[in-house]
């Protein structure tokens, strides 16, 4: 399991051929368009320019589709907060979660009334992305 | 002319091009799955080395653990399949616990349970990766558009599940309460300060006076990662009371639909116990025998939230669920009646 699998090539040969042919044809079409415009053949020039643009669009689409998506780190450290509460006087202390914390665990004494405090809550807060419209 | 050739070639090889594009997409996801699987393995090994209390290298054992399989019983003859399935699940559970004990003899019980949960998450990531890799290679070998197409269409859902397991690793490593523990949290709040006793394997019960009724509150034994045997526990309480239970209320986390808010509380009837349904079956059998009504209180969340550190919305929903339970008891039972309140779910990071 620990052995690394051989990485495959970034682009397959068929894709490289398609991309190169499209690029060549697009350049040729643009060249023909320039010549046609130079000869005052505006209609023909426009056709060639259109073919060139179409070729480039196709090429860009193929490139976007075949690119390897960058590996995002899916394991993001989540900030988890622990709330320690004195049930007698209501004193509250919120701090980062520490290993060994659990809900309803008896913890240190209350600095105000010296009563044993408990861990009242452990949770993470999630900030929702702005601009998301929810249908209710 | 060349353009004509290109267009004709696109017509002829269109399917091939589409297949190549799909394969690239699947390959990208497969790389991410491999990364997650490796992270799970690495995290498990490093946690075992840190907290295991032994000098022995756990790598080989972890690798063996990640390949474990549990073969379900034959269901061609469905009679008694539940009990055969329960036996296999019990054997699996004992085997897992023994393995973790061997890997980390220095760990205390609750930490060992957390470690077991963590290894199970790593095992799930390994299985997901291997299954996707299998279909990817199969699709490539057979050049079957339909195998690749099915895989590519299902991938978004599979990736969501894998990412949920991946996020679960942090919670299991540190012993943080997870969203699935919403039911256990409600029960913990209700039984806090009352005497608890073991009622079934890894399951505790407290007798709590509530609104003039006697409530038998049940949950898995925390704070280690445990789901206990809620079905068996409910059955035991009913049998011990000779069926004189006015109502049973089960609280559990439920998967929300897209568009619903996490932490929404819903009510209903039926037995809300997830997993392989052995426990659900036991409750259904027992409540049917004594004609006991079963109510459920559900706390909604998505799959990602269910196995990662508990969200504030879900935590806050526990208080709303307690209010609903009290209202249900007042409406559905009379003073002096006995009721069962069972908080179902993984109790990691939740005491009692």
- Main sheet characteristics of chain B: 7 strands, mixed
| Strand ordering within the main sheet of chain A | 2-1-4-3
* Regions with little confidence, pLDDT below 50 for 5+ residues of chain A: 1-8
The helicity of chain A comes to 25-40%
Binned strand content of chain A: 15-25%
Number of helix segments of chain B? Answer: 10
Q: What's the order of the H and E elements of chain B? A: HHHHHHEEEHEEHEHHE
End-to-end separation of chain B = 79 Å
Overall domain count of chain B: 2
Structural class of chain B: alpha/beta
Helix tally of chain A equals 2
Radius of gyration from the alpha-carbon trace of chain B, in angstroms: 24 Å
Notable characteristics:
heterodimer, A: 136 residues, alpha+beta, 2 domains, 4-stranded antiparallel sheet, 4 strands, rod-shaped, disordered N terminus, B: 352 residues, alpha/beta, Rossmann fold, 14% strand
Write the layout of secondary structure elements.
The complex is a heterodimer of chains A (136) and B (352).
Chain A: H1 13-38, H2 42-66, E1 80-85, E2 92-96, E3 106-109, E4 116-124
Antiparallel strand pairs in A: 1-2, 1-4, 3-4
Helix pairs in contact in A: 1-2
Chain B: H1 2-51, H2 59-65, H3 81-103, H4 109-142, H5 145-174, H6 182-191, E1 196-200, E2 203-210, E3 213-220, H7 230-240, E4 247-255, E5 265-269, H8 278-290, E6 294-301, H9 303-307, H10 312-332, E7 338-343
Parallel strand pairs in B: 3-7, 4-6, 4-7
Antiparallel strand pairs in B: 1-2, 2-3, 5-6
